[in-house]
Design goal:
- The structure is a homodimer.
- Chain A has 6 helices and 12 strands.
- In chain A, strands 1-4-5-6-3-2 form a 6-stranded mixed sheet.
- By secondary structure, chain A is α/β, with parallel strands linked by helices.
- The first copy, chain A, has 2 domains: about 70 residues, Hypothetical PUA domain-like, domain 1 (Ribosomal Protein L25, Chain P, Beta Barrel), CATH 2.40.240.20; about 160 residues, Alpha/beta knot (3-Layer(aba) Sandwich), CATH 3.40.1280.10.
- The interface between A and B is medium-sized, with 34 and 34 residues.
């Protein structure tokens, strides 16, 4: 936890918050419960600053806070990710969030196992937990939006043309040429398939929508490796 | 398992192998035990090709193999990685291997917990298991070499100058400027610190050795995210 994220209902006064939950436990467990101790804080979807512990007891602490900084700039990308298996989804969501992605579409694909869509992890509150962990890691405050799209065809035909308008639209596909089209800071819509890749029908549908195929080379990477490897190419040089 | 890796003692004849272990179980579990079925195979530290199932029973299978391809080119990098916590080490080793790194130095740093060095995962056989998983994932055959260096100072003073000679020597450090020095295909020695980063003494020692600091930006990333994000910048453009 490199940043303590605050919500509106933590506030007891304009510059004062009371913490009781997981965040209190974390500070307790890591020996940071000391009066006067400065802590990095941020408001969810707001600014970043510092907090000072004013009082604490065995169940809660009060912080006086000051906000003096904008969160880091977002990565200019809309990520379309074939729904990974639940165990991997947690890590991938945290990683993607820590890299600054703000628009995440979890989409269906022929090679996504149907059962994945039934995972409790896809409940709004559970998704939010993973996003918060990613923000806390990266010292960011802006919550990504996660959109679930269980049907590939209507998503690609009806919604995607509007989404990718004005962006560089790319799909990671093992048989493609190199990475040239993935450029730092360029607004990008990036589609990443499931283990085993998108099927030809899906690649064709994406191509009709203006997507160009790119590849990290002949090695086949796990989603959790491919995602940061691809997103890294969008970071300022 | 995108590739079945074969060892010398699997061979019963020059082009024939018998499989009994984990690899047999995997093919059984994934419904691939069919006579005539072609499979991607590779020889550890050797060539890649295809195998055909000739016979099988409940405990083993025989493959006739043909080798017709070199493994993918290695990534021209020597990776120095502050020893991660054991749970993360597994994933990081698999990921690093799947990206084509062949020289991995797990090094000490002030912020590496001493207990990590006692992990059973650091035994040669256990390390090898993770490397094999990474190779199978990426369809590669060349086993990375993992070197354990439990003392930072003698490593950096006595061994590192020779190691990084003739390469671009870079250390990932949050306060540094951007990534400019990390260029595709350039022989590189890349040092990545522990969660919390190298301490100033260590950064100074690396600087004396010719290392330049680079950064992925103001976000703080977990090692498992930072490593593929950094290595990706070395892939051909």
């Amino acid at each position: 936890m490199n940043l303590i994220l605050l919500e509106e209902n933590d506030f007891s006064a304009p510059q004062r918050v009371t913490l009781r939950d997981r965040r209190f436990q974390h500070l307790l467990a890591t020996g940071q419960l000391q009066t006067g101790k400065p802590l990095k804080i941020g408001i969810i979807n707001g600014r970043i600053g510092s907090g000072t512990i004013i009082v604490f007891d065995e169940q809660s602490l009060d912080l006086e806070i000051e906000l003096h900084q904008a969160p880091p700039p977002p990565l200019p990308v809309t990520l379309l990710l074939a729904l990974p298996r639940p165990k991997m989804l947690k890590r991938v969501l945290q990683g993607v969030t820590s890299l600054g992605v703000k628009q995440i579409y979890l989409i269906n694909s022929y090679r996504v196992e149907k059962s994945f869509w039934g995972s409790p992890l896809l409940q709004t509150e559970k998704l939010r937990e993973q996003l918060l962990l990613g923000l806390e890691q990266a010292r960011d405050t802006i919550l990504p939006q996660v959109h679930l799209r269980k049907r590939f065809k209507p998503f690609v035909e009806d919604e995607l043309p509007g989404l990718c308008k004005g962006t560089t639209a790319l799909v990671a596909h093992p048989t493609a040429d190199r990475l040239g089209a993935l450029q730092p800071n360029r607004p990008t819509t990036l589609a990443i398939g499931p283990e085993g890749g998108f099927i030809p029908y899906e690649i064709n549908k994406l191509a009709e929508c203006g997507f160009t195929a790119i590849s990290l080379g002949e090695r086949i990477l796990r989603v959790e490796t491919a995602v940061p490897a691809l997103l890294s190419r969008l970071l300022p040089g």
